[in-house]
Amino acid sequence: MLRTVPVPDQRLVDDYLEPAGEEAVERLRTAAEPLKGSRIIHVSSTSFGGGVAELLPTQVALLQDLGIDVSWQLMDGSEEFFTVTKLVHNALQGAGIPWAESMEQTYLDRVASNAARFEDPADFVFVHDPQPLAMLSFLEEWGRRTGKWVWRCHIDLSHPMEQVWSFFGIHAERYDAAVFTMEDFIRPGVWKRIAVIPPSIDPLSPKNVWLEHESVWEILNAYGIDPQRPLVTQVSRFDPWKDPLGVIDAYQLSKERVPDQQLILVGSMAHDDPEAWHYLEQAQEHRREDPDVHILTNLQDVGPVAVNAFQRASTIVLQKSIREGFGLTVAEGMWKERPVIAGNAGGLRLQIEDGTSGFLVDSVEDCADRIAALLLDRDLRATMGHAARERVRERFLSIRELTEYLELLNEL
Ligand code: UDP
User: Could you tell me if the CB of 156 is within 6 A of ligand 1?
Assistant: First the structure.
């Protein structure tokens, strides 16, 4: 057996009537009806960090409430395997990497041993990302495939490194369907069926649920942030694609016009990610000892509730990415009725309609202009924040995403 991830949070579909609306909940129940009693398995390579770990607990809990038998199982990796799959991840998003037959072997050996432990007959299997992708090929080879298989590709597959894709594509084409975040990310060819289903946020999770003003203030005070002065926040890994240095530059530029603003950069640090430590240090140097720039990480105990408080307390939420798959932080900020300024890239474009439910920016200067304009215009902030929340309510809540998955399963 593969390891099963326990899903501690209870979620009832009816709890979503208020945030998502009756119609959305009804559509979910209709989609779930024909699937009652069927068995769904999600397979991923990690239960911690990243979008998949953020999304699946809610999905699993809701499916259980809908009378669908669901489990989330983890494949077992190894350091060598994850080194290969991290390179694969980059290569499939278009980077050039050194690719060798020995890497294919490392990948296949590990996936085969996981496939051998996959003993559960299921009606539907969702496989997330490239790490467990080839499991289906082994099961087919051994005559042990049951049910319909869906590959959920969370990355931008539009321009993969050809040599790496020629290896992975063979495994992908066996799937009954592939799901992408947006049209632009689809690699043409090979697919029996394609669905475009953007990710979502859970309005009832500790990161997004309503917090009283007193709790928000307490948390800000605990981190030495002044709740009475304007606050600009970016929550993201310390990664060059998230452009933390560009965020500091934009803040500094706009500070010439709005001097009392503060900036928070929150990022979680994994002990096995030396790159992140390097970029964290760079950001620390870049702030030039400005006491109004707060750089915080999980090492200071910044968990989901603190992130929630920072986003809620922010006058503006930023996500100045240069490249981005989806960017859950944007939906998180929008749901909290914050005006969000985001890089004009990938899934950020899907979420924000520029000028209405937020701003999309192409440069540091552009970003600084938007920061200053929003900080100086309370009405604009209110109108934009309101439009942002409604946009998330309509398109980016977990109920909608789950419904679209179930509708796909019904078609299959
Ligand atoms: N996040 C967090 N603490 C941090 C950094 C990120 O809780 O210090 C969360 C963030 O709120 C979001 C997720 O991690 O829910 C990151 O997802 P996103 O799609 O924005 O970016 P990714 O890291 O997947 O590229």
Answer: no
Report d(CA 118, CA 7) in Å as an integer: 20
Phi then psi dihedrals of residue 127, to 5 deg: -110, 125
Q: Are 76 and 84 in contact (CB under 8 A)?
A: no
From ligand 1's centre to the CA of 236, what distance in Å?
5
**Can you give the pLDDT at residue 49?**
66
List average pLDDT for each run of 10 residues in the chain, which is 412 residues long.
85 94 97 97 83 88 95 92 91 93 97 94 95 97 96 94 96 97 92 96 95 97 96 93 96 98 90 79 94 93 95 98 93 98 96 98 98 98 98 97 98 96
Q: For ligand 1, pick from 201, 236, 238 the residue to mutate: most ligand atoms within 8 Å of CB.
A: 236
Task: Answer positive or negative: Cα dihedral of 351, 355, 357, 358.
Answer: positive
Q: Strand runs (DSSP E) across 88-154, as ranges? A: 124-128, 148-152
Please tell me whether residue 142 adopts helix, strand or coil conformation: coil
Instruction: Note the pLDDT of residue 276.
Output: 84
Burial of 151-179, coded b for 16+ CB within 10 Å and e otherwise, reads: bbbbbbbbebbeebbebbbebbebbbbbb
- How many C-alpha atoms does 364 have within 13 Å on its Cβ side? 12
- Whole-model pTM? 0.93
For residue 54, the ligand 1 atom closest to its alpha carbon is 15
